[in-house]
Amino acid sequence: MIKLELPYDSRLIPGTAYWLSGLAEKCGVNTKRANTLCFVVETTLEKRVKQPCEGIPVFTITLEEHGDSISVSITDKGLPYVLTGKQREMLQAGLVSSFSFEQLAIDGQRLRFDVEKEPGAEPEPPAAETAEETLQDTDVRCRLTGMDDEDILRAIRVMYSTYGFRYIHQDIYRHDHFRAALQSGKYISILAENAHGQTVGHVALEEHDWFPGIPEVCNLVVKDFARGVGASGILVAATLEAGASKSFEGIYGMPVVHHPISQKLFNKHGFTPCGFFFHVAPSSINGPENDDGNRVDAALCISILNKDKPHALYLPAECEDFVRGVFEKEAAVYEVLPEGESLQPETVLSYRIDTVNTVMEARIDNAGRDLAGNIAAREVPEGFDIAEVVMVYLSMNDPACPAAYRYFRERGFIFAGCLPGSSAGDYLLLQNLRGAPVIREKKVLEPNYQEMLDRLLEMAE
Questions:
Q1: Which of 267, 294, 329, 437 is least enclosed by beta carbons within 10 angstroms?
Q2: What is the 3-state secondary structure (H, E, C) of the chain?
């Protein structure tokens, strides 16, 4: 990560923006996107430098490299602001891959731009094990993937064995990106092998910025020749062991709902269904042949590892029984407290827009007295026409949570469950599906997931 402080001096802006775009290009962003980033950064800084700033008259600018993208963040403690309609139009037009805005209270405000890297030439197919490979033994054990090329290649070959080069996250095929993810500490890769040294499967834990302490179980693949010997279950068990050894608060999964296999797997290992992410992505994400015009749904499930951590919850009456049920199934320590006002008067809100999947997500950690005006200033969700779906993560640890919940419910949002346990807090999930229906017929659900869906849709009526 590169971090610099820039004084409120308009003369420094063009050179800084050009320098950042050059760094982005060196990190793998193509020239056209790098030039666009230069324009976005320059226009943003020029607008902010015209606003008064007292106390700390500097911007903090960071450039950070991620697997398949880079991000540029601009943080300042100047006059509080929201994005203008023209700025939103500019960003929604695809000048950046996604953007997010955070109000940081005493730390000011941060605007972040994400830009995808150049995909590059398709890598050579791994010198993979042949289709005729047969399983030599069923003594399957797991270990962490190492940093060396050979181990990373083993993990890549597992993904290739199932997806070829069609896996949605293309950076997983590139050694340098895979290694950088491992080095970040936010991606834990696990290989499954047997006594003969055959690599039979892979799974990972990925920790996301908004929900630290509860990484997601992802990239679970078992090679065809090893199916039927319980390798998937062994891999999921290994994620629980890795989560405990790394002192994570918990781990969560997003089982697919067009077939029940992943639901069965998470059930077997004690995960508790806790919500749905309706319409998470276009159906085309599964390939052009599967594009039926509807969007893809996913379920959410949680395993809280830190059972002793107390959770102080302020719950809306409508969903209190649902949330209590999740915490009790997880045997987690919690207390439901009466509604009150937020601990600080200002709203603390972050949001991000995924222009690829056309989803807007907002996280509200403190619903201050200015919540309605704060939301209206951003015209959420009406002003973000690019977003087909809006997801709001509402902190249950905020005394004003019930009031904020009512605010969104009155504006057409539905209750979609909860995601508890992160070190940032426990969250209710609310969604605005923009009038699109939830199609029951497309879901193949295990009984506990079916019961959860029925309860959520009943509350939505």
A1: 437
A2: CEEEEEECCHHHHHHHHHHHHHHHHHCCCCHHHHHHHHHHHHHHHHHHHCCCCCCCCEEEEEEEECCCEEEEEEEECCCCCCCCHHHHHHHHHHHCCEEEEEECHHHCEEEEEEEECCCCCCCCCCCCCCCCCCCCCCCCEEEECCCCHHHHHHHHHHHHHHHCCCCCCHHHHCHHHHHHHHHHCCEEEEEEECCCCCEEEEEEEECCCCCCCCCEEEEEEECHHHCCCCHHHHHHHHHHHHHHHCCCCEEEECCECCCCHHHHHHHHCCCEEEEEEEEEEEHHHHCHHHCCCCEEEEEEEEEECCCCCCEEECCCHHHHHHHHHHHHHCCCCEEECCCCCCCCCCCEEEEEEECCCCEEEEEEEECCCCHHHHHHHHCCCCCCCCCCEEEEEEECCCCCHHHHHHHHHCCCCEEEEEEEEECCEEEEEEEECCCCCCCHHHCCCCHHHHHHHHHHHHHHC
Does residue 345 have a cis peptide bond before it, meaning omega lies within 30 degrees of 0? no
* Section 387-394 average pLDDT: 91
Alpha-carbon distance 11 to 413, whole Å?
45
> Across all residues in the chain, what is the average pLDDT?
85
User: CB-hemisphere CA count at 13 Å for 177?
Assistant: 20
Question: From the CB of residue 154, how many other CB atoms can be counted at a distance below 10 Å?
Answer: 18
Percent of the chain with pLDDT over 70: 85
Q: How confident is the model at residue 290 (pLDDT cuts 50, 70, 90)?
A: low
Structure tokens at 146: 């190492």
Measured between alpha carbons, how far is 188 from 177 in angstroms, rounded to an integer? 13
For 38, 64, 125, the CA distances from 19, given in Å and listed in that order, are 8, 14, 36
Backbone angles phi, psi at 349, to 5 degrees: -135, 135
* Closest by Cα among 126, 82, 77 to 105: 77
The gap between the terminal CA atoms of the chain, to the nearest Å, is 47
Q: Which residues contact 288 (CB under 8 A, 6 or more apart)?
A: none
Angstrom distances, CA of residue 226 to CA of 191, 238, 262, 453: 13, 17, 17, 33
More confident residue, 334 or 100: 334
Residue 86 is encoded by which pair of tokens?
């023209």
Closest Cα to residue 379, out of 437, 432, 436, 415? 432
User: What is residue 263's predicted lDDT score, i.e. its pLDDT?
Assistant: 96
